[in-house]
Amino acid sequence: MRTCFVGLRTSRRFWKCGMMLSSVIIVIEVIRIFAIKHVQICAVPQAPVDMETTTRATPNNYSFPLEIDFHELLADIEADRPVSVQPINVHQFSYISNPKNMCRVNDLRHRWSLDGKGKPFFLLILIKSSRKNFHLRQTIRWKTKERRFKKWRRRVRIVFLLGYSFNESNSEIARESDIFNDIVQEDFLDTYRNLTYKTVMGYRWATKYCSVATHILFQDDDFHFNVANVFYFLRLQQDTDSVYIGHYIEDSPPDRHNDSKYYMTYDDYPHPYFPPYFPGGAYFISMTIAQKFVKVFPYVKHIAIDDTFLGIVAYKLNVTLHDSGLIAFGGCENFTEIISCRGYINVQEVFSGWKEFLQNLGIFKTKSEFFSVEDATFEPIHLQGQSKDLHTS
Ligand SMILES: *[C@@H]1O[C@H](CO)[C@@H](O)[C@H](O)[C@H]1NC(C)=O
Ligand SMILES: *[C@@H]1O[C@H](CO)[C@@H](O)[C@H](O)[C@H]1NC(C)=O
Ligand SMILES: *[C@@H]1O[C@H](CO)[C@@H](O)[C@H](O)[C@H]1NC(C)=O
Ligand SMILES: *[C@@H]1O[C@H](CO)[C@@H](O)[C@H](O)[C@H]1NC(C)=O
Ligand SMILES: *[C@@H]1O[C@H](CO)[C@@H](O)[C@H](O)[C@H]1NC(C)=O
Ligand SMILES: *[C@@H]1O[C@H](CO)[C@@H](O)[C@H](O)[C@H]1NC(C)=O
Question: Where, by residue number, does the polypeptide cross the bilayer (predicted)?
Fold first, then answer.
C-alpha cells in the first residue's frame, strides 16, 4: 500500500492503485454483507425466554380516582369525542431541554426488515437519570460505541430524563445537553418524590417526539441493557403491541412509615395493597400501550411513586403485565440472556469504560473543561443495590 501511495504521481500507477483499492473495497464489502447475514441468521444471542406466564391482579380493592370507565374514556379520547369528565392530573411542566429531532429518521422501512418478517422495530431507551450521575450517563454513551451496539444503532435511540436542580446552577446539564443532545429535561425539581413527573415526562416526550419507536425500554441509569436481545425477543412475539414485561410485583403494601421516602398517607392511597406493578428500575413496553397510558394520565390522581402510579394506570386500562426474567434485578451475571439488568459487573468496568470514552472522543478539551477525566470523581456508592436512591438530588 505504501508504494502505491508514493507512486500516485503517475497516472498509470494511479489507475492501478484505483483498481486495487476498488477490489479491496469490494472484497471487504462482500465479506461484510456475508458477515451481517451470517450474524442475523446464526449469531442469535442465547435464547431469552418468551413472555412468561401472564399474571393477573388478585381481587383486592384498588379503587382510585377517577372512578370512571377507562375503556370508555380511552375510546372517547381516541375517537376525538368530547370527554365528560375534567382531568385531575394535568402535567404542567415545560421543557428546559428537548432533543426534538432525535427520532427523526428517513423512513427506509425496507432497510429495517432485519427480522425477516419486515416488522420495522425501533427501540427508544428512556433512562431516568439525575444531575449528579454524569459518570453513568457517560458509561451508557460509551456503550453505544461498542461493536455489539453499533449494529443496531439505526434503530435505537437513547434519551436521558432529568428534572431541574435549583441549588447548583443548571448550566452543567445545559452544557451536557448541548454536547450530546440526548437530554430531556423539564422544570420540576429533580427529587425522588417527583419521580412520577419524570416518568410522565418520558412518556409524553416519547409519544410526541419519538412515535417512530415501536417499543420503549424504560430504565434507571444504573441498569445495563442488551439491545440484541430486545430485537430477538420481539421477533419471537406474536403480538408485539401487547408487550409489557418486567419484574412482576403483586400484593405490595403501601409504606405507612412517615419517615420513609416511599411514604403513602391514607389520603394518597387508602387500600392495603397496590395493584400489580413493575418496579421502575427497568421494564419494557410497546409504544401502543405507552400511547394509551399518556392519553389517560390526566384522569388518574397523582401519586408520588412512579411505578405504583403506572400499576394503577395499567389496572384501570386492564393492560396485562407479563412477568419476565428478561428484566433482571439480581445483577448482570447472565447478561447474554437478558434485556436489562441492574448493576455493573464491577466498579472497574464502569470506570474504565467511561474514561476510555472521554479520551477517545477528545471532545471535552475543546468544548467543555467541565468534563475532564481528572475532575470526574467516581462514586461507587451509587452503583450497587441502591437504584432507588439514584434519582434524588
Ligand atoms: C373500595 O375502597 C373505596 C375507598 O377508596 C370504598 O369507597 C369502596 O366502598 C371499597 N369497595 C369495596 C367493594 O370494598
Ligand atoms: C416537585 O417539583 C415541584 C416543581 O418544581 C416542586 O415545587 C416540588 O417541591 C417538588 N416536590 C418534591 C416532593 O420534591
Ligand atoms: C410519624 O409517625 C409517628 C408515629 O408512628 C408520630 O409519632 C409522628 O408524629 C409522625 N410524624 C409526622 C411528621 O407526622
Ligand atoms: C381484561 O383483560 C383480560 C385479558 O386480556 C380479559 O379476559 C378481560 O375480559 C378484560 N377485562 C375487562 C374488564 O376488559
Ligand atoms: C443466572 O442464571 C442462573 C441459571 O439460570 C441462575 O441460577 C442465576 O440466579 C442467574 N443469576 C442472576 C443474577 O440472575
Ligand atoms: C443545596 O443547598 C443546601 C444549602 O445551601 C445544601 O445543604 C444542600 O446539600 C444542597 N443540595 C445539593 C443537592 O447540593
Answer: 14-35
